Amino acid sequence: MLWLMTEFVLLAAVVVAAGVLMTNTADRIADATGLGKKLVGIVLLAGATSLPELAVGITSVRMGAADLTAGNLLGATLCNLLVLAGVDLVTRTPGGILSRQAAAHALSATGVIILKCVAVIGILINSTVMFGPMGLTSIVLIGVYFALLRLVYFDELATRQILAENEPQKRPPLGRNAAGFLAAAAVIFLTAPELARVADKLSDLTGLGRTFMGTVFVAAVTTLPEVTAAYTAVRLKAVELAIGNAFGSIAFNMLILGVLDAFTSGPMMAEISDVHVVTAVCGMIVLCATVLSLLYRAERRWPILEPDALLVALLILGSFGLVYMQSR
Fold it and tell me: 249 with 82: CB under 8 angstroms?
């Protein structure tokens, strides 16, 4: 047990170190390409920091642990939002991360809510309709994801055209930063399967059960790149990168949930326990609260804590407690 915990911590440390490198290089890539920090955060950084979820998902599906897979991907939503709220509370970012300054991300957040609604419907209806190697719900999830990506891209493109005159003339080198980004992403992708193996053993030894383990324990650790990315981005004063990464990672996790269907013999959604509907609905409630925080900011602020971030954090902790009670 002690050795497993030690191995778990060491693997997590590797993921964190790679996450720091990825965030720094992603920030420079955003400047080098002129794509903007929001788009790079939603697509590039989110995709890379979600590699643990992809690797863990493939490993879990091949082990026949559909509940661990669903718990990891759906639970990562709560972990990603907890990261945003936590960084907002700890760093006391001027204006707050969850504020009107970040209201442009409400579009992607709303799209994520739609993705989670599709996942909930797929779990509840237990559809066995297949199109090739994938179920109907998985195909819809993938289609909605790319439709959302297209919408965000054109929205950001319009914004970048308006702000084009304010772009810095001197841009950092793209090649070196892209190489560093890919190297860090490769480290995370190779480390994640071993992380899944250790987490699966710990789930048996702790007696918490695979459902709760996937929702909290594995989801928390595979969200470490997002934790590192958010904190590093705030230190770099790239708040858009942090928020884009959080919402982009949640959306990418829903894409992974659909893609993993191709690695199973039947429709994966039909094999997922209904207990994960609770996790998904809790995630949607917290997402709605986050969108409200992005769109509304009271003039009066608390001297010590950000009330919006505190509300989001409390909702997430309550969600974890509810999921645990449901899985017992």
Answer: no
